[in-house]
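In response to reviewer comment 3 from the previous cycle, which asked for concrete evidence that the modeling workflow produces usable outputs, we include below a single protein chain processed end to end. The sequence was submitted unchanged, and the resulting structure tokens are shown without manual editing.
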Amino acid sequence: MEDRREELEQAVEIIEFKKDHKFAKGVITGMLSTVCIFLILGAGVLFWVQGRFSTGSIGESASANIINNSVRAKINELTSMIHQYYYEDVDTGKLKEGLYKGLFNSLGDPYSAYYTEEEYQEMMISASAQYYGIGAVLQQDRETMQVKIIRVYDGTPSQKAGLKAGDIVVRVEDIEARTMELTELVTHIRGEENSKVHLVIAREGEEEYLEFDVRRGKVEVPTVDGMMLEDGIGYIVIAEFGKATARDFEKKAEELQAEGMTKMIIDLRDNPGGMMESVTEVLDYILPEGLIVYTEDKYGNRQEVSSDAERYMDLPIAVLINGNSASCSEIFAGAIRDYDYGTLIGTTTFGKGVVQTVSPLSDKSAIKLTTAKYFTPKGENIHGTGIEPDIELKYKYTGAKNKRFNYKKDNQIRRAVRELKQAEQGR
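The workflow returned the following structure tokens.
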């Protein structure tokens, strides 16, 4: 049993609990806000794809209002001046792509974008997890466009190369990281197996930039792990909501229940989200019958996702959250809160309450557009505000950082253990 506990503790460490929570609210807790993306096999860029956008008179009318004769004349004039006076030859195709991208940039929405055919293909490869990466999780500040590594997984190319959580990505090959949206930037980090990507990194405490040649490889990182703690308390970590998360969560929960779990801690700290279908499947396993989440577009069209009555987990639950808990993590936290089905412990979540739709176009390019808001069961949209915990508690780890993670040194886990013991006594 002791060997099994040690094995589980080592496995849980893969999910990276030795957190440096010096973030401001947002996906960096405070003024910063970020867009997270996984560079690991099995994660990828995960979107809730609702299908193609409908076209018709509305779209044609809007197009006519923008692309009129005067606009066409101005575009042609500007293009002519670029070709005539720009100091180098210009690719007309790239100018066209720039027009399309500019249209979406004008929305001022960091989640909406235009993708070239090549970028869309890369994105689909990410979503299907058929690519080779470096085994790190990146996030990008919406305002400054700064790219930070927030997690490096054990045994991955990133760890072997010496990258660390907290490192700032300055350049990828010859690309300045701040000049490119994260979804596009990672297409330059991924590549063929065993090929190398050159990264220039800024690290706290280092006066000069550090340079790394990271060999790309196949990376498999679990999205769910856990172990038994004490007094019947099971501990489950969900690193992100991917395709296999619901299945793996159910399996882990059943394993812990077989070991005597009567109370449960679910750790969503630093979980940037993922697939809506995944989080609703996990919640369906946990919650009794009822509404889980719903979305509304600007026309008032509403789509609901509910839990059925077939099964639910009737036991005290505590959920750990922080400023890096975003999107699907907030759907999870919002449903638990609205049903009063558990205690939220930690700090206020990121605040991403909108849904994106990815739609391919006829020329094999694509767009990603924010098409709806999502709401918690009681009708709250948390976009820009996040979800406040029931118990506000900033993270503090009192153990040695270079030693094996010890949950008893994690003040948020300790508080969750205490709350669950009290909840069970009050039943």
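The chain has eleven helices and 18 strands. We consider this sufficient to address the reviewer's concern, and the full set will be provided in the supplementary archive.
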